[in-house]
Amino acid sequence: MNSEHDAQVIAESVQTKRTGWAEAAMALTQVNVDELVMGDFPNEVDEDLAW
Question: How far is the C-alpha of 29 from the C-alpha of 33, rounded, in Å?
Answer without folding.
Answer: 9
